[in-house]
């Protein structure tokens, strides 16, 4: 597949995915979603890739939301389909078995914030702005913003942000726990790479297990405590476990095979 709306680069085992519609503030249309899904299910899964950074091109926006011009004339069924499609792609990101970091370089609004929230960790540049302004358009968020924002910042603040549609600055997002770090725009990608590298050097099997266990906490009908018992137990049959414990015992650095 040719990517026309997204740039990709693999360097030092890190796949950087850059949303690339800067004139439309990287708004998420159907073409972007098709490309993003293809990237996550074809490129990001290869052995060459050990972690993913998602960011936006230009200095102004990560993504200013779903493409309003594209959905403005949708009917009820098309609206439901748009929401379900977006949620399905963001679920692929949330449950991805390698670390995915959102490097939020500007506006992360509506679907843009929802994309960032589907990533495992969020970093922001100091010019970043966050919000779920959907109510100002007469819609609710559709890509799981009501769910993930509530998980990340708690019910009261989530309802305030969702009902007012207010935009907040990076330092407030940091205070709320919506992002983990705020840095300058120049430092954003190197900070994301640094963080990703500190994950990548760990056991990929154990990191995938951690992602699965944490997701289990938020999944209805699944007991996260049981998931942890299963994942912990499974580790004892892996080469990563043998390598990690052997390295500890022999006072050397582990070199994990990732299986
Ligand atoms: N969809 C489509 N186009 C968008 C867009 C979006 N979400 N956001 C910005 N653009 C376009 C603008 O229409 C404009 O295009 P033209 O030059 O062709 O007119 C271009 O990007 C630049 O935008 P502005 O001129 O508006 O830039 P600004 O600096 O004056 O304002 C902004 C920036 C405050 C982010 C403003 O663009 C804005 O409010 N954007 C919409 C934000 C929004 O409501 N997002 C939620 C979308 S709905 C959603 O996401 C639903 C869901 O959950 C699934």
Question: Characteristics of this structure?
Answer:
259 residues, alpha/beta, six-stranded mixed beta sheet, 11 helices, 47% helix, 17% strand, globular, binds acetoacetyl-coenzyme A
Q: Could you characterize the architecture of this molecule?
A:
With 259 residues, the protein is an alpha/beta fold. It has 2 domains: 195 residues, 2-enoyl-CoA Hydratase, Chain A, domain 1 (Alpha-Beta Complex), CATH 3.90.226; 46 residues. It has 11 helices and 10 strands. The strands form 2 sheets. Strands 1-2-3-5-7-10 form a 6-stranded mixed sheet, sandwiched between helices. A 4-stranded mixed sheet has the order 4-6-8-9. α3 packs parallel to α4, α4 crosses α5 and α5 crosses α6. Bound molecules: acetoacetyl-coenzyme A (CAA).
Tell me briefly what this model is.
47% of the residues lie in helices and 17% in strands. The chain is of the alpha/beta class and 259 residues long.
List the helices and strands and how they pair.
Blueprint: E1 6-11, E2 14-19, H1 30-43, E3 51-56, E4 61-63, H2 68-71, H3 76-94, E5 100-104, E6 107-109, H4 111-118, E7 121-125, E8 129-131, H5 145-153, H6 155-164, E9 167-169, H7 170-176, E10 181-183, H8 188-200, H9 204-217, H10 224-235, H11 239-249
Parallel strand pairs: 2-3, 3-5, 4-6, 5-7, 6-8, 7-10
Antiparallel strand pairs: 1-2, 8-9
The site of acetoacetyl-coenzyme A (CAA) has 23 residues, from helix 2, strand 6 and helix 4.
The termini sit apart by 29 Å
- Apparent shape: globular
Poorly predicted ranges: none
The percent of residues in helical segments reads 40-55%
| Main sheet makeup | 6 strands, mixed
The ordered H/E elements are EEHEEHHEEHEEHHEHEHHHH
The first-level CATH class of the largest domain is given as Alpha Beta
Bound compounds, each kind once, are:
acetoacetyl-coenzyme A
Instruction: Please state the second-level CATH architecture of the largest domain.
Output: Alpha-Beta Complex
CATH topology of the largest domain: 2-enoyl-CoA Hydratase, Chain A, domain 1
Radius of gyration: 19 Å
Number of strands: 10
Q: Strands of the biggest beta sheet: in what spatial order? A: 1-2-3-5-7-10
Number of domains: 2
Proportion of beta-strand residues: 15-25%
Structural class: alpha/beta
């Amino acid at each position: 597949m040719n990517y026309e709306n997204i740039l990709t680069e693999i360097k030092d085992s890190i796949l950087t995915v850059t949303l690339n519609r800067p004139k439309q503030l990287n708004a998420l249309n159907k073409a972007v979603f098709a490309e993003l899904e293809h990237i996550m299910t074809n490129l990001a899964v290869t052995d060459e890739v050990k972690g993913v950074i998602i960011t936006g091109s230009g200095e102004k926006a990560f993504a200013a939301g779903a493409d309003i011009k594209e959905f403005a004339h949708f009917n009820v069924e098309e609206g439901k389909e748009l929401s379900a499609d977006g949620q399905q792609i963001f679920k692929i990101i949330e449950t991805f078995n390698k670390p995915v970091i959102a490097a939020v370089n500007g506006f992360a609004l509506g679907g843009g914030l929802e994309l960032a929230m589907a990533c495992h960790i969020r970093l922001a540049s100091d010019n970043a702005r966050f919000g779920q302004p959907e109510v100002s358009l007469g819609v609710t968020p559709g890509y799981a913003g009501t769910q993930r924002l509530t998980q990340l910042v708690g019910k009261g603040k989530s309802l305030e942000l969702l009902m007012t549609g207010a935009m907040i600055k990076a330092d407030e997002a940091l205070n709320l726990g919506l992002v983990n770090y705020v840095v300058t725009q120049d430092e954003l990608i190197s900070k994301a790479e640094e963080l990703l590298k500190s994950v990548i050097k760990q056991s990929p099997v154990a990191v995938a297990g951690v992602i699965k266990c944490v997701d289990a906490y938020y999944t209805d009908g699944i007991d996260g405590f049981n998931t942890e018992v299963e994942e912990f137990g499974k580790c004892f049959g892996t080469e990563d476990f043998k390598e990690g414990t052997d390295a500890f015992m022999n006072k050397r650095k582990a070199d994990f095979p990732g299986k």
